[in-house]
Amino acid sequence: MGRNSLKGQVKISGAKNSALAIMAGTLLCDDDCRLNNMPCLSDINTMGLVLASLGVKIKKMTSSWEFNSRNLKAEKAPYDLVSQLRASFFVIGPILTRLGVAQVPLPGGCAIGSRPVELHVRGLQAMGANVTIEHGVVNASVKGSSGRLKGANIFLDYPSVGATETIMMAATLADGVTVIENAAKEPEIVDLANFCNSMGAKISGAGTDSIVIKGVERLHSTDYEIIPDRIEAGTFLVAGAITHSEILVTSVNHDHLIPVIAKLSEIGCKVIQEDKNILRTIPGELRASDIETLPHPGFPTDMQAQFMALLTISEGNSLVTETVFENRLRHVAELKRMGANIKVKGNSAHVVGVPMLSGAPVMATDLRASAALVLAGLAADGKTIVQGLQHLDRGYQDLEQKLQGLGAKIQRLQDYQP
């Protein structure tokens, strides 16, 4: 049931996108690695199954996982797992640089647009790998008797997060120096670099558009904590704004949220830093704003759907332009079912604010769309039923419990039949 004020505080979990890449990074080391602040998500569990299929021994505790990849195999990861999770393709770099050969099926994940692996492949080829794609499987091997990749200067046509991570991991054990130009600058890139450096890698420049990796012979064990999830934090900040509520969002990194906080302030909801890791939402009158998604440090594509939900009840005309993924406006049809006034042309959505949304049955089309529909339901008059929660569970740990803790009238229905 919507139109219910929220109050209290909510703790943000570890970052999904950091954890997935760093899990792949544990393959670089044949000693024990321990990761802390791990989120409990279906994507994380799927990645664990992918690693286990490659011979990795995994021990799970509540929010800490231990990995040992001493018996890492170059065998092909099962397609039924890889097809569920795009991030599983990240294993190709660590496996290739450690074993000299790798076989990884082409990946799956959210249906939000074409995210080709060609930038990953070109980067590995620049480092001396033979790469072929046959029958849906990427086969890579290292030329020469040494079995080691060679350092290279690599320019990315687009600052792809995945390609930057794949090349960076592959370069940690390569022979020589690798420079990635036009690298992605997301906080998750910095987290992966810090993790690799904690194992003895020599990576500098992460968070800038030029990353330098000096290859080393081997890496050692580490005990590492994953950063907080900036997208989950941003989603809860929007929850405060869309319900006109004052809430505390804890265990966050303010610097990772600067574009989100700036846009919320423009729309009419102030966000105050209460403490080093605590943010408070101060509600206000909501007004229209234009949003264009861009690679970091621009406005994150992973927050576009949630902000569109907010703009549906913000006074005036807003324009939301999606430049990162071409199929990421499919939540528009579902928001319109709730009474939103939105018109789509190409990769842009023109949003005219309405006084109120109305509860309705809606279907989530991808991970962030599912969060947007939950947020819209919090603000809508009456009951909203969101179906397709398998998308939500990929990226939000205990979302309904956390919202219940803030006073939201929300519950998960088992075996719901429309």
Describe the structure.
The chain starts with 6 loop residues before the first strand and ends in a 13-residue tail after the last helix. With about 425 residues, the protein is α/β, with parallel strands linked by helices. It has helices spanning about 15-25, 40-55, 80, 90-100, 120-125, 160-170, 185-200, 230-240, 260-265, 305-310, 330-335, 365-380, 390, 400-405, and strands at about 5-10, 30-35, 55-60, 65-70, 100-105, 130-135, 135-140, 155, 175-180, 200-205, 210-215, 220-225, 245-250, 270-275, 280, 290, 315-320, 340-345, 350, 360-365, 385. The radius of gyration is 22 Å and the shape is elongated. A 4-stranded mixed beta sheet has the order 1-13-15-14. A 4-stranded mixed beta sheet has the order 3-4-2-12, covered by helices on one side. The protein has 14 helices and 21 strands. Helix 4 (about 90-100) packs parallel to helix 6 (about 160-170), helix 6 runs parallel beside helix 7 and helix 8 (about 230-240) packs parallel to helix 10.
List keywords for this structure.
four-stranded mixed sheet; single chain
Structural class per helix/strand content?
alpha/beta
Query: What average pLDDT do the residues reach?
Result: 93
Helical region count?
A: 14
Strand runs, count:
21
Going across the major beta sheet, what is the strand order?
1-13-15-14
Question: Are there runs of 5+ residues with pLDDT below 50, and where?
Answer: 109-114
Terminal CA distance reads 17 Å
Largest sheet descriptor: 4 strands, mixed
- Percent strand equals 15-25%
The helicity comes to 25-40%
> Radius of gyration in whole Å, from Cα?
22 Å
In one word, what is the shape?
elongated
